[in-house]
Specification:
Largest sheet: 5 strands, antiparallel
CATH superfamily: Trafficking protein particle complex subunit 3
Shape: globular
Helix content: 40-55%
Number of domains: 1
Distance between the termini: 64 Å
CATH topology: Muramoyl-pentapeptide Carboxypeptidase, domain 2
CATH class: Alpha Beta
Number of strands: 5
Order of helices and strands: HHHEEHEEE
Protein name: Transcriptional regulator
Strand content: 15-25%
Structural class: alpha+beta
CATH architecture: 2-Layer Sandwich
Radius of gyration: 18 Å
Strand order of the largest sheet: 1-2-4-3-5
InterPro entries: MetOD1 (IPR041359)
Pfam families: MetOD1
């Protein structure tokens, strides 16, 4: 009797994508339970910033420009989420805001109850918007991680006089 699985049928276990989402969910859960949701979000913030820097440069290079305009920023954000199986689309763009909605989270059902993972989106979106448009203030109005049926992300492009709400994060262009 062989101990090997017949690979012609789907073997038990996870595929690569499911495995990685499960690992990320587990890590975020341990962080949230150990240091709290706010502190866990800080770790995710840092990773999001690193990813945002790299992706921003990739999109600038691909478009042959040193700075993306608001339409290009919105399109890049939708495209980058599409590449990782997200379902973002542009709800609206004007001089003051970019609003994106999402019907499919790249983390799938692994995001449920793990709002700290949404910090990845906040930081990647905020960094790319601010580096190209000078400023961004990002808030998530709806989140699948919190039980909503979609995500809704609003990126303000002009600095307001008021202090950002606890659920908002400001980003400023860095000197290059």
């Amino acid at each position: 009797m062989s101990s090997a699985f017949d690979t012609s049928d789907a073997p038990p276990g996870l595929n690569k994508d499911e495995f990685m989402r499960t690992v990320i969910r587990g890590l975020s859960g341990i962080l949230e339970e150990t240091v709290g949701e706010r502190e866990a979000a800080a770790y995710v913030n840092h990773v999001g910033l690193l990813i945002g820097r790299a992706l921003n440069q990739d999109y600038r290079t691909a478009l042959g420009t040193d700075r993306l305009d608001p339409q290009q920023v919105a399109s890049a954000l939708v495209h980058l989420k599409e590449r990782i199986d997200g379902g973002f689309s542009i709800e609206s763009i004007d001089a003051d805001h970019i609003t994106l909605v999402n019907s499919a989270c790249p983390f799938g059902d692994k995001v449920n109850g793990r709002y700290s993972l949404c910090r990845m989106t906040v930081n990647v979106f905020g960094h790319i918007a601010a580096e190209n448009l000078g400023y961004a203030r990002v808030r998530i109005d709806e989140a699948m991680a919190r039980g909503d049926n979609r995500c809704r992300v609003v990126i303000a492009l002009r600095k307001a006089d008021d202090i950002p709400d606890r659920e908002e994060t400001e980003f400023f262009e860095t000197a290059s």
